[in-house]
Amino acid sequence: MRSKLACAVLMAPFFLLLTAVFLVPVGTAVWLSFFGADQPGLGFGPERTVFVGLRSYVAVLSDPTFLNSMLTVVLYCLIYIPLMVVGALTLALLLDSGVAKLRSWAQMGLYLPHAVPGIIAALIWLYLYTPGISPIIDLFAKADIRINFLGVDTVLPSIVNIALWSNLGYNMVIFYAALQAVPREVLEAAVVDGAGPVKQAVRIKAPLVRAAIVTVTMFTLIWALQLFTEPVLLNQSSPMISARFSPSMYIYDAAFTRNNYGLAAAASVILLAFTIALSYGVTRWTNRRAAR
Amino acid sequence: MRLSRRTFLAAGLTAPLAACSTPQRRGAGGPVEITFWSALRGSQQVVDAFNSSQNRIRVIFQQIPSGLQGGYVKLSNAARAGNAPDVATIEYPQVPGFAIDGVARDITDLVTDGLRRKLLPQALKLTTFDNRMFSVPLDIEPMVLHYRADLFEQLGLRVPRTWDEFAELAKTVRDKDSAKRLVLFPTDGAMQFACWAWQAGAKWFDTAGGTWRVTMTDEPTRKVAAYWQRLIDDDLVFRNAVESRQSDAQIGQGLVVTRLTGAWDAGAQMRARPGQKGKWRIAPMPVWDEPVVGTHGGSTFAVTKDCAQPEAAMEFIEWQVSHPAALTARLKSGTSSQYPVAPGLVETGSKAFPREYYGGQDVYQLFKQEADKVRDGWVWGPRMSATQRVMQDGFARAGAGRTTLIEAVREAQKGTMPDLKALGLSTEEGER
User: Does the record carry Cell membrane as a key word (chain B) (predicted)?
Assistant: First the structure.
């Protein structure tokens, strides 16, 4: 009895927060997506709230700008996630192998960008990307290389770059921690069997931190699908980033510049469903591979 | 325990909210207070003039960012929270949107016949939907051709009267000086493009059948798009954003020889580049066959749903749009050259607007002649800011050679329809 009570008390904050910051907003979004403040005909009459069924969902899914934003974010994930996972893992393995000198300094230097808030990071990069004020572009120009970081084709890689800069160190720390848990006797056995440092890293260590790789991939995926801060900021200096560049930006635009809350809510629910489905897919896929 | 905590939180939350709500209107005896938001330059001077002209109504003015820079979002959010200002400035393209959202109230019964008679009917039509009027126009801005008289003389050019002549001239300018171009195609200029389509007889939105009929790629629009596409493809025009340092440089260094913008821009140009005094002149916008034009810019005043004193608000609006002192105050600020919707004010404007910058030209007489040529029948759509943005996203890519202008317009229509449908409006799509 006593332990049950303790359990309830200890769990309560979690469930309270889950309800307040997740279930209630999701419920509101779902509700909003099924109702509309309608006026008949041209729309100049008095409003009344009516149940509109799937109308907002049909509108979102028939909106080429929304589908484009989904396509953009998928493309972003395809570039960003492999680079992030492989990059962070490589760095962690390098640190772990002892090849790298000044290990703690390197670790801190790599981690530091993560402590910079996303909006500040985007501002820093905005400065570095903007022609006319960027020292980097000036430097390239001196070597007679003309580069436009915010052009049609370069804008997505530029955003990937900001995200990598911010998050590489963080994920590296997760991998590094996981590597510390790899049993030393396994590594000693590998050495005895004649495995060099590269073979050790690729064949022994990496497979042993699989769980961490899956976790990092999943978190990165969920984070990436919500792409918002960087493009919103870059939007101010590049016409190649539209107001509906990513799904999150589409939702923001629908709610706050188009005053179309039903549309925004429906798009949010679609993005949520998409994220859940994709995360579930990744888990299932990795679990099946683990079972084999 | 939890209850007291909640009340504590509630008290903490309401205190700052109360502090930022609109000031309370004074009781009987004192003047009625009216709050007014505007992004228009010179508004403070106009409000000061109004406040000192009488003592029954006191207007409290707040300068807000221009519409697409956040002004409209601010207004919508304030209205949603129930504390919109009594009077708000809304540009023509956004009037139907704010009317549909219920922010701009139906003022049909508040507008007196006297006021109606003072204003140009072609402007009133743009703020009237479903036979109901939603805002009072302040200025109507026919597009005009601003040109560098000195460069025209130097290069031996003649002011073009038709679009064919204009295209010819574009070639001449490029051939005579490869660094110069006749004009800029603004990749952030969906409103300029709309004006050209309007002039050619396009009807992007039509409400005649009691339903929003959207046809953004009608024959006139296709003609205009093809015309500019050819100028772009032949490298006869600059193609970048007009709101950019690049464009500032093009104008500042005399690389661009003409500018196509609304009448209001004469004042903005004067303020932005005092050094080019005496070099510019203004001519009518080129035409196709019929002597008609479209408008670019222009503002209206709406009484919002949150206004408690609509009559007082309307009195202030009427004064702003039709009293000579209002126009004088605005022009005295030295930054405006708005063309008033009240023809009775043209003389005032003509006198108050300094003529030196345009080499002594009486630009107001030109504006008057052009305002009478505004083509009848144009209707703005219910979500014009969004339509504009999608179109400009396309224009930016068209400027980089990745798509075409007409494709950008088509995308704008496709990106607008879901919005209108989700709002529950009755819609219909024309060819696209």
Answer: yes
